[in-house]
Design goal:
Number of helices: 9
Order of helices and strands: HHHHHHHHEEH
Number of strands: 2
């Protein structure tokens, strides 16, 4: 995986509730020049206007620079150009989550899981959404599925069918407490 894609995945992990297993860029004292990354993405788009990868990269850079509207526009374009690549959905999900746009993040997360039903991070995030909606049984099911899927993965990252990596050590570290928490919430909500 090239450095730019690695930066994007650290960005996605940082936006999602699961922390990356390796030190983040900030922890590694690596500074990303997002203006330079945006210029690189724009140059890639100039050469290949139908490149979902470069539109995704532009969206990530716009978001890092605080330009939410252009970030969403670029990621949606990347999704339209390559609807089979789950990374476009996970990136859009992370941007919506960061902005607290619940209905949008829920919708795009379901699209993400439709494209990549075995992604432990996607199921963990869906468990989180369902927990917030107080659908305890459904949330518990998603957290348990995320844990099962994560245990099947060797190493710290799940790799989807498009070759995108999702760090899952955070899921491994948080799954049991999420399952316990939702189990207790479910029991306390059940009439006696």
């Amino acid at each position: 995986m090239d450095w730019t894609k690695s930066v994007m995945l650290v960005f996605i992990c940082a936006l999602c509730s699961v922390a990356p297993s390796r030190p983040s860029l900030a922890q590694q004292k690596v500074s990303t020049d997002w203006s330079a990354e945006l210029a690189k993405a724009k140059a890639g788009i100039e050469k290949n206007p139908k490149s979902a990868f470069w539109h995704n990269q532009a969206g990530v850079a716009y978001n890092a620079l605080g330009d939410f509207e252009n970030a969403v526009k670029e990621i949606k374009l990347a999704t339209a150009l390559d609807p089979s690549d789950p990374i476009n959905y996970s990136t859009l999900y992370a941007i919506y989550k960061r902005k607290g746009m619940h209905s949008e993040q829920r919708r795009v997360l379901l699209d993400w899981l439709e494209k990549d039903a075995n992604n432990p991070l996607g199921h963990f995030e869906f468990g989180y959404i369902l927990e917030g909606e107080k659908y305890w049984a459904d949330s518990l099911r998603e957290y348990q599925l995320a844990k099962r899927l994560a245990t099947k993965v060797e190493g710290p990252a799940y790799i989807d069918s498009s070759g995108n990596m999702y760090e899952i050590d955070g899921i491994r570290a948080q799954a049991d407490s999420a399952i316990d928490r939702v189990t207790k919430l479910s029991k306390s909500a059940t009439p006696k």
